[in-house]
Amino acid sequence: MAEKKRKKEISTASRLSVAPMMDWTDRHCRYLHRLMSRHALLYTEMVTAPALVRGGAVHLLAFSPEEHPVAVQLGGSEPAELAQATRLCVEAGYDEVNLNVGCPSDRVQSGAFGAVLMKSPDLVAECVTAMREAAGDVPVTVKCRIGVDDQEPREVLPAFIATMRAAGITRMSIHARKAWLEGLSPKENRDVPPLDYPLVHEMKHAFPDLHLSVNGGIGSLETVEDELGHMDGVMVGRAAYHQPYDILGEADRRIFGDTRAPLSREEVVLAMEDYIGRHVAAGGKLAQVTRHMLGLFAGQPGARRWKRVLSEGAHKDGAGFGLVREALPR
């Protein structure tokens, strides 16, 4: 019963999720995002299984209890190692463990994981089977592309999803672009390959029993609402980082039906005071937190000054919440 309840809760949360983004969705970013939405599913940056298992870097799994529901994304391609890493993630208390089959960076390719795994669906099936056995009642999910390089997405994607379903996967996020492993940088891979939302929508019709989320190029809450007419969930990346309040500020009311009044932008900032105070008191730098807050007032009066004051002062010795208060738009 507990397992069913947990899976239902995390499945509901994934109606709207914030994508795993390297160097961006760290624990400070997630704490900030949680203040704006009580319900959206938040993902960690990708953590590699070798770093956890061989490198002993379990500090990478640290997070605040307030971040729930929170999912960890793993990178790897060795089933036994991914199983070990999954156990560490479950012990750390994550609500979901996700396997990265979408990242196109050279660093990821050289480790034989990420988007290159789209070419090896049977290996991915072995990986997720091992992860599921290690995860117990914690859901294991997959994030993938629609294809890589010269693959034909209309052939590759349904076959890949069918293989995942056969391996016991019930929830997937699909980035609606191909990844080009050679010739495009990771940044270009987020923009240059065309988006194919209709193909991803077709996958929902072809696999009605699976919970499928669409990712890639989602830039507004209105688009999230539109896409939920086709899909079970929507995963938002860069827009949720650069304009977090525009995506998350009204999300609980509009996506999850929560009638509680959302915090205003200023209330979100003030709610960060204790968190920032603890971080600085423990020896952390203000800029490690405030770099994620620069887009809070995007499009609002005073946004430029807010960014300037924080960008110029947050890295200085002794900088604390007083600087954040000073930067607030007046």
Automatic annotation (TrEMBL):
Protein origin, superkingdom: Bacteria
Gene3D superfamilies named in the record: 1.20.120.1460, Aldolase class I
Residues the entry annotates as binding FMN: 20-22, 73, 143, 175, 215-217, 237-238
PROSITE patterns: UPF0034
Keyword tRNA-binding assigned: yes
One Pfam family here: Dus
Active site: 103 (proton donor)
Enzyme category, top tier: oxidoreductase
EC annotation from Swiss-Prot or TrEMBL: 1.3.1.91
Reactions this protein catalyses: 5,6-dihydrouridine(20) in tRNA + NAD(+) = uridine(20) in tRNA + NADH + H(+); 5,6-dihydrouridine(20) in tRNA + NADP(+) = uridine(20) in tRNA + NADPH + H(+); 5,6-dihydrouridine(20a) in tRNA + NADP(+) = uridine(20a) in tRNA + NADPH + H(+); 5,6-dihydrouridine(20a) in tRNA + NAD(+) = uridine(20a) in tRNA + NADH + H(+)
Cofactor needs: FMN
Keyword vocabulary terms for this entry: Flavoprotein, FMN, NADP, Nucleotide-binding, Oxidoreductase, RNA-binding, tRNA processing, tRNA-binding
Domain DUS-like FMN-binding, chain residue ranges per copy: 18-319
PANTHER family in alphabetical order: FMN-LINKED OXIDOREDUCTASES SUPERFAMILY PROTEIN
Family, per entry: Belongs to the Dus family. DusA subfamily.
Name of the molecule in the record: tRNA-dihydrouridine(20/20a) synthase
Source taxonomy: Bacteria, Pseudomonadati, Pseudomonadota, Alphaproteobacteria, Rhodobacterales
